[in-house]
Write a structure and sequence with these properties.
Layout: E1 5-10, E2 19-25, E3 30-33, E4 40-49, E5 52-59, H1 61-64, E6 72-77, E7 80-81, E8 84-85, E9 90-95, H2 107-136, H3 143-169, H4 179-201, H5 211-240, H6 243-277
Antiparallel strand pairs: 1-2, 2-3, 4-5, 6-9, 7-8
Helix pairs in contact: 2-3, 2-5, 2-6, 3-4, 4-5, 5-6
């Protein structure tokens, strides 16, 4: 992790207690430094017990709250090459919040909240509502179409902004376990959303032979993208350790699923009633539930 500062407790074969020291990490090297960085105190304590080293340092709150100060902590262990540490073999990471009660949030905390809100609003609210309108509100022709486009475009703008804020956070939270998966999944669903927008722009005419296949593509790619996005929203909330967001989005998702189940039930019942009430329909007729867009 280039540019990071490490507090190491080194024990070689002849040591009976750990020796703590400060190091600076470069891209391909690591160098010992004599003094603690400004964000820490030089007052160190250490203890060795049953094969485990316990080490602590005092944090300088004023320095930690300075602009652009990273708040990611990495706890790791690894072998020595002589007296020089090698790459760690085991590690875990933690995004720390050093601010005491009543102090301001750091820039990274604010950006993380904006990133989460934008994606939750786009993927969790506007895009699902737009999809629900397209499937169940055809009786309001052509109003349903304009509502569908409005919700989808607004949702797409929100997830673009969410993607941009996400990229601004990647250096701050580099090394956080699970972040790579969250980022990759986010890029995948964004690509799928972009393809959906292009599909609307390039859709064939209603009487074109390929329109049927276009409908299948547009409907199922959109649904699959919404499912993946819901999973990724929960992953992001888990990484941010925001339990309140988990509850809030869970309620939103539950209401959307309940609405879809109710509307789909009504939709299917009306389709069957229409099939049985029409004397001109062939016995093999089945309603086409893949709505045209």
């Amino acid at each position: 992790m280039e540019g990071s500062v490490a507090l190491l407790a080194i024990m070689d074969a002849s040591s009976t207690s750990p020796t703590p020291s400060w190091w600076t990490l470069y891209s391909h090297s690591i160098s010992i430094i004599s003094d603690a960085p400004p964000s820490f105190s030089s007052n160190l304590t250490r203890q060795y017990s049953n094969g485990t080293v316990y080490i602590s340092a005092i944090v300088n709150i004023t320095a930690i709250l300075a602009p652009n100060t990273p708040d990611s902590l990495l706890f790791a262990s690894g072998p020595l090459s002589g007296s020089t540490p090698e790459q760690h073999s085991e590690y875990t990471s933690k995004v720390a919040n050093f601010a005491p009660a009543g102090t301001h949030l750091s820039t990274s905390d604010t950006n993380r909240g904006v990133h989460g809100f934008l994606n939750l609003a786009g993927w969790g609210v506007f895009l699902p509502i737009g999809a629900i309108i397209a499937r169940y509100c055809k009786v309001w022709d052509p109003t349903w179409f304009y509502l569908h486009i409005a919700f989808q475009m607004l949702g797409f703008i929100l997830i673009i902004a969410g993607l941009v804020t996400g990229f601004t956070l990647q250096d701050t939270y580099k090394g956080v376990s699970g972040l790579d998966s969250h980022r990759v999944l986010g890029i995948i669903v964004f690509i799928m959303a972009t393809l959906q927008i292009l599909a609307i722009v390039l859709r064939p005419k209603k009487d074109a032979k390929v329109r049927r296949y276009w409908n299948w593509y547009h409907h199922w790619v959109g649904r699959f993208a919404l499912v993946l996005a819901a999973v990724n929203l929960f992953v992001g909330i888990h990484l941010a350790k925001e339990n309140g967001w988990n509850v809030g989005y869970g309620i939103i998702l539950g209401l959307e699923i309940a609405s879809i189940v109710a509307l789909e039930t009504i939709f299917c019942i009306r389709g069957r009633n229409k099939e049985h009430s029409s004397p001109t329909m062939s016995p093999n007729f089945a309603p086409n539930y893949d709505n045209d867009v």
